[in-house]
Amino acid sequence: MIPFRLTFEPGLPLYEQVIYAAKKAIISGQIRSGHPFPSVRELSKELKINPNTAHKVVAGLLAEGMLEVRVGVGTVVVEPPRGTAAERSRLLKRELEQLVIQAKKLGLDLDSVLRAVSSHWERLGDYETEDGKTGELTKL
Fold first, then answer.
1. All structural domains of the chain
2. Whole-model pTM?
C-alpha cells in the first residue's frame, strides 16, 4: 500500500506529481524517518504507472536526499538535511518563479498573492525552525 494519496492531473509529468505527493507526506510526518518507502515494483503496481516512471520517482527522491537505500532493509525515508537559509531559499527559486508567473498570468496583484501564501502557510501549521523549535504540519 502506498502511504500517501495522489490524484493525477493532466498536463503535469506523472513522476513530478508522485515526487511532490511523496515529499508532502514525508514533510508532514505521514511517512516518518526510518520507515520503508514503497519499492519501484510496488509504486508501479499500486499507482498503475510504468515501472520506468516509478524508478524515476525513487531516483529523484534519492537524489534529493529524501530516501536512502539500506542493505538488507530496502529504501527508507531519511530526515532531510537542514542546509543553510541561502541553500533552502535557492531550492524554492523555481517554485517561486512559477507562482509569480502564474499569478501574473491570472492578473493577480502582489497583495492577493501574499494573502494566499499567508493563508496556506497558516493552514499547514507549524514547521521546524533553524533554532530547532518544532511543531506539526497539519491539514495536509
1. 14-77 (1.10.10.10), 83-140 (no CATH)
2. 0.63
